[in-house]
Design a protein that fits this description.
single chain; 84% helix; Rr_diiron-bd_dom; Ferritin-like_SF
Length: 128
């Protein structure tokens, strides 16, 4: 099956986002005060790694994670605390699910990733 340029652009952006989220969640796990939050973020990092592999299976592109979120999110955690930071993370997870919807229709393997992103948002919300 050939992938249109438009879909490939979405898939690559999604793959990059998942890779970046792995580093972000790992970084947050190292700085959060609550041990349950830290364990949760480690699990989410692992799941985001699986998601990036799903997208890699489609794109066949080897991308490198960008460290921007991994750098800034721990700083934001220290500055604004979980009460203000976690809603931003929740929104990001829900937005990812929405962004995956159009390609999930054409690539069924993305449907489970889309559902996981919604679940990730719910999990982070439960930490508040």
């Amino acid at each position: 099956m050939s992938i249109s340029k438009k879909d490939m652009k979405i898939l690559l952006k999604s793959q990059q986002g998942e890779l970046d989220a792995v580093l972000m969640y790992r970084a947050l796990a190292n700085v959060v005060k609550d041990k349950n939050d830290a364990e949760t973020f480690k699990k989410l990092a692992a799941e985001e790694g699986h998601h990036s592999a799903v997208f890699h299976g489609l794109t066949q592109e080897n991308l490198k994670p960008k460290k921007t979120l991994a750098f800034f999110m721990p700083i934001l955690y220290r500055l604004i605390g979980k009460k203000h930071l976690y809603p931003l993370i929740i929104k990001g997870e829900y937005n990812a699910a929405d962004n995956y919807a159009p390609v999930a229709e054409r690539f069924p393997e993305i449907e489970s990733v889309k559902k996981d992103e919604k679940r990730h948002g719910d999990i982070v919300a439960s930490l508040l």
